[in-house]
Amino acid sequence: MINYRNGLLLSIASAILLLISLYWVPWFIFLSFIPLFFACYKSNHTFKYGFATGFLFGAGLIYWVLAVDAPIRGWLWLGALFLFTYFGLIFGFSMWLSSRIKRFYLIPIIWTSVEFFRGLSSELGFPWGSMGYMLMPYLKFVQFAEFIGLPGITFFILLINTLLFYAIKKRNLRYMYTAIIIILGVWLQGIIAFKKNSQITNNKSQIKIGVIQPNISPETKRGHNLDYRLSTLYELSKEAKDCDLIVWPESSIPGYFNLGNLETRIRKLVDSLDTPILMGGARLALDKKPARSYNSCFLVVPHEKVKKIYDKIYLVPFSEHLPFVKLFPTIQKLHFGQGNFSQGEEYKVFELNINHGKSQTTKFSTLICFESIFSRVSRKFVRNEAQFLVNITDDCWFGRTPGPYQHAQQAILRAIEYRIPLVRCGNTGISYFVEPSGKVESATNIFTRRVITRRITIKNIPCNNKSGRSLTFYAKWGDWFAWLCIGVLFFVIAIPKILKIRAFHK
User: Fold this and answer.
1) What letter does residue 342 receive in the DSSP assignment?
2) Can you tell me the distance from the alpha carbon of 488 to that of 483, in angstroms, rounded to the nearest whole number?
């Protein structure tokens, strides 16, 4: 058994390997957990070792939250410490549970189950930094997400780590050969799937989309420079010629969309461009008592009233709202500098009319910022017949840190899971187009003013609202694999206890 000091050193080594795989050498993820496993194997300090690894990894993963210019800096530091601790608890609990049930080889199932629960809640869910996202630089290794989603990729990573750990621990090469066979199998499947889902040129099933990256600074946003912001967006939009849809980023509209004469001004701009524009902004629901504000997006169609609105459902905890405020209304009195948005209630699917020689309709949905990292949000849109996804965001608050890059990378997986195109529009970047294979096209740099246009292929654009589009296995059955892991874990824990109870009564 490894002594406590060496166990901590091994835990730190795992955290360092995880950060190396995150920022420099992604394939290190297949080795990153091995030192931690050695520390925890038959140890009495599994929670401590796991916590140390998770805390250090969390600090290296999201240290950039401290770059946000919050009004109360003390609360920001406390919030960052809470997030680092959160990762420590996730790692610590996973390793403790593996020792508690005395089946170390079940770590892939345990980790997948615990990580899955991280993203279940719309109030407090936070799947940022899930292990499955660490393989996104290698698109060939994540193609099977169309069958088992993000939890399946996490399971794959932990399985390879576990097999290699046992190969070293037991000095048995059969574990290593098994790991190699699994890796090759996933890679070969990925090559086939990537090629199959690459963009197919078919003018009859394509629409042209323009993405506007205005690069409006946080200082300008705080100044509420309405005229400057609208004129900038308008002039850039004129460069997106002959588009079926133009996309503006999250919070591109200053103030509340439905108050004053802002909506009228927006409609005039859209009418003059004669192109539908999807734009992000806030709205105030005056029909609610008390009135509620929403982080929303609006599809503004030329010469029509604005009726197509989606209100963000998965809000950023402690930034856009305080969790569980509906259950505990008194916590609304607390103020940490956070927003006070209400959660949306409808998974809205927009209909977009296009004209390719005959009237056609295609459907799409919008992921506002943080929602792009939740597989289950996109799944509800896709099952409601969305044929492509649009992610609008504003990451300017995080500056030139890894934050915007991590956010952009995680969103790509949604295209693979559902085999539909994804369009991303960021205020300061990163903006891009994603093919159903996960291949990124026309990606922009951060903090640059850009206009990018591209035709995306929509499978089976419906005429007369009839679509023959087929769903992926994951779209049909959702997180079946994650629930299977949870079921296996439950029986492994419950059955011994049931047998003990029966033996006692006999």
Assistant:
1) P
2) 9
- Lowest model confidence (mean pLDDT) among 55-64, 140-149, 318-327, 379-388: 318-327
- Give residue-wise pLDDT tens across range 186-228: 999 999 999 999 866 555 578 999 999 999 988 888 776 889 9
Summarised one tens digit per residue, pLDDT across range 35-65 is 999 999 989 999 999 999 999 999 999 999 8
Residue 455: which of 279, 238, 233, 199 has the closest Cα? 199
Q: Roughly what angle, to the nearest 10 degrees, separates helices 4-23 and 46-62?
A: 30
Closest CA to 149 of 373, 485, 482: 482
Instruction: Dump pLDDT digits (tens) for 479-499.
Output: 999 999 999 999 998 877 666
Tokens of 123: 């109030």
Cα separation, 89 vs 99, in Å, equals 15
Amino acid in position 300: V
At 327-338, the pLDDT tens digits run: 555 555 555 555
Tokens 């059969």 correspond to 174
Q: How far is CA 114 from CA 31, 87, 151, 358, 487, in A?
A: 20, 11, 10, 50, 12
DSSP class of residue 158 equals H
Least confident of 45-49, 89-93, 398-402, 501-505: 501-505
* Spacing of C-alpha 491 from chain mean position: 30
Instruction: Indicate if the pLDDT at residue 463 is higher than 50.
Output: no
pLDDT at 313 over 70: yes
Domains and CATH numbers, the chain: 4-196+479-505 (no CATH), 203-469 (3.60.110.10)
Both structure tokens of 181: 């066979």
Residue 233: burial class (beta carbons within 10 Å; 0-12, 13-18, 19+): buried
For residue 393, give the H/E element and its range.
Answer: strand 388-393
Pairing state between β 245-247 and 277-285: parallel
Tell me the torsion sign for CA atoms 196, 200, 204, 210.
positive
How far is Cα 492 from Cα 502, in angstroms, rounded to an integer? 16
CA distance 230 to 254: 9
Residue 164 burial (C-beta neighbours within 10 Å; 0-12, 13-18, 19+): buried
